[in-house]
Amino acid sequence: MRYQLELDIDRPRERVVELFLDPDNLTKWQPDLVSVERISGDGPRDVGAKTKQTHKMGGRDVEVIETITAHNYPDEFSATYESDGVWNLIENRLLEAGAERTHWILQSELKCSNFVMRLMTIFLPGMFKRQTLTFMKRFKEFAESSGA
Question: Is the CB of residue 64 less than 8 Å from the CB of residue 52?
Fold first, then answer.
């Protein structure tokens, strides 16, 4: 399953990219994120770097392995996210849309080997899009409320 979402953030691109790339900010806009543990890589956001992220979902802990696949500052930041039977590639582009505005384009490719998850992508694709848009809106609120 593939989809694209777009959102404008009322902050300068340089500031948005800075906030987006700082791993210390993840829990500020991802309330279900419990912990982040670096597995490999010279820097936390370098291509090839891996982290184990633990999320609290529905009362259980879900471990996700993030692997950075592209980091073309400031234009693109992409990563894969893998958990039990789920592989997700997220490509983020943060574009200047004026002196005080950033246009965020997120492309997602989701593959599931887990039977239940595969059925959900077929019959409930809107659920995945809504969840992604919720995270995008949380980041937007965080970025717009952060100081210069």
Answer: yes
